[in-house]
Amino acid sequence: MASLKDMRVRIASTKATQKITKAMQMVAASKLRRAQMAAEAARPYAEKMEAVISNIAGAAAGSPGAPVLLAGNGKDQVHLLLVCTGERGLSGAFNSSIVRLARERALELMSQGKTVKFFCVGRKGYEQLRRNFEKQIIDNVELRSVRQIGFVNAEEIAKKVIARFNAGEFDVCTLFYSRFKSVISQIPTAQRLIPLEVTAPAAGAVATSYEYEPEEDEILSGLLPRNLAVQIFRALLENNASFYGAQMSAMDNATRNAGEMIRKQTLVYNRTRQAMITKELIEIISGAEAI
Amino acid sequence: MRRDMSTFHFDLVSPEKIAFSGEVDQVDIPGAEGDFGVLAGHAPVVAVIRPGILTVTAGANTQKIVVLGGIAEVSDKGLTVLADVATAAPDVDLEEFAATIQTMEQQLPSKVGDELDSAIERLDHFKSIQHELNTTAMH
User: B69 — alpha (psi -120 to 50), left (phi > 0) or beta?
Assistant: First the structure.
């Protein structure tokens, strides 16, 4: 049985751990607030962009001259999975749930005889995917040194994706990230980027007939790459908020578990201490009686 | 809410924030194919905008906002401008802006063909913004 001193040391170390998890929880909570605000501020732009594109694209998608970024290149053989994860761990199932979704999709596509390539954004996803798909990872972007995710970061990623698409390296691109619903709920999401998923205008809504300046296809060719960057930017911001949400609840759990452990350890410690005192008393009394 | 006949709703959004949202009388937009003004009841239009200065008039107030490209949409719901970057003119850091222009000039020699053309065009737009910011003494 452990000595009293060993027990004291163990309780002290559990308390130290609890202090760390408590601090991490509070840091995550304050960062979450900022990340959530950033994610919410980006929503109107992304939504308006989607509305404008689906307005123009509705007419263009059917025509044979539609831009490839919108309609795809007609093939469905090589799939690129753009997997966005966090840079750090200690956030519960945040990273692994995104990776799991991507991995399941990859295995499903591969069983259909398709070729799958990965583009990783974030270190954690890269590390997890490397175990199974090392040779299929064609690019990896780390945002570790970036303190505040800006639109330029998303633009860089979008440029790389478009360059690879134009070089014919893949036919279909799907984006994986975690949508922030609430602190306790983040939903791993897959979103197809190329060809673009255009939401049909609501039935009954009167389509406005716009004048275009310059021509539709010219606007569209400028707008589509930009939309890709916007969607990636939104994914990064949602991911960021989800990460802190997940970390906050994971650290909250850890703090509570540590508290429970301290309670149990202290109970055992006190029992042992009392048992020893009783034992010593018995020894003294029986010694005195023997005289 | 009943809207006054002579005003309309105007939203200016950039990827990072909503730069302006409210009822206005008139907005002058630097279109890629020429400047145009938008008043209430304007015909629906989608237009690409160039880097330039956007002027918002609401009542007696006039506000100038620097936008670095984007797209404008007029519908019966009002005007929406999706700007790549939107900064109120008084908030523009002139030194930083000059530095941006300098970097663009330095990058010119490395470009060719269409890319060079569009880079030169963009540089010209930036220079005219700088000129206007300096001369109108909005600081």
Answer: left
